């Protein structure tokens, strides 16, 4: 049962990671940081250029880190922070549903936290023992 659980966690991380990479790529390449910063400024987001870079890099680099499973708790918190900012500055005023509502960013916020703190054994964090509880050594008595 544990391998199936870990496989589904990996699948979840890959899907969420790809979504964040897509949006980070859009900000860096498709729209460009200058365009994103201008849009952020119009939305009242503080330090729009810094915020645009921060958001784009969290989404792009964090998405890749999520997929391979490195720094999962930190990346999950950063995803939640970015999504909370998107909610506060843009989506909450539009209500829950689409278009423009906050259900999508709320889903990404929750998925980022849930998968970030429960990433499974198929991750670089698990390979390197990062964030894993130390297992007690069992001694064999003669």
From TrEMBL:
<feature type="transmembrane region" description="Helical">
    <location>
        <begin position="45"/>
        <end position="67"/>
    </location>
</feature>
<keyword id="KW-1133">Transmembrane helix</keyword>
<feature type="transmembrane region" description="Helical">
    <location>
        <begin position="104"/>
        <end position="124"/>
    </location>
</feature>
<keyword id="KW-0472">Membrane</keyword>
<feature type="transmembrane region" description="Helical">
    <location>
        <begin position="74"/>
        <end position="92"/>
    </location>
</feature>
<feature type="transmembrane region" description="Helical">
    <location>
        <begin position="7"/>
        <end position="25"/>
    </location>
</feature>
<keyword id="KW-0812">Transmembrane</keyword>
<keyword id="KW-1003">Cell membrane</keyword>
<dbReference type="GO" id="GO:0005886">
    <property type="term" value="C:plasma membrane"/>
</dbReference>
<dbReference type="Pfam" id="PF07681">
    <property type="entry name" value="DoxX"/>
</dbReference>
<comment type="similarity">
    <text>Belongs to the DoxX family.</text>
</comment>
<dbReference type="InterPro" id="IPR032808">
    <property type="entry name" value="DoxX"/>
</dbReference>
<protein>
    <submittedName>
        <fullName>Putative oxidoreductase</fullName>
    </submittedName>
</protein>
<dbReference type="InterPro" id="IPR051907">
    <property type="entry name" value="DoxX-like_oxidoreductase"/>
</dbReference>
């Amino acid at each position: 049962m544990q391998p199936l659980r870990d496989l589904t966690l990996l699948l979840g991380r890959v899907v969420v990671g790809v979504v964040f990479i897509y949006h980070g790529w859009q900000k860096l390449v498709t729209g460009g940081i200058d365009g994103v910063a201008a849009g952020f400024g119009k939305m009242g987001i503080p330090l729009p250029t810094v915020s645009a870079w921060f958001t784009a890099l969290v989404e792009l680099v964090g998405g890749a880190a999520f997929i391979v499973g490195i720094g999962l708790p930190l990346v999950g918190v950063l995803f939640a922070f970015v999504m909370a900012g998107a909610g506060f500055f843009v989506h909450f005023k539009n209500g829950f549903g689409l278009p423009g509502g906050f259900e999508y960013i709320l889903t990404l916020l929750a998925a980022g936290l849930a998968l970030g703190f429960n990433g499974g054994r198929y991750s670089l964090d698990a390979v390197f023992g990062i964030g894993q509880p130390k297992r007690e050594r069992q001694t064999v008595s003669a």
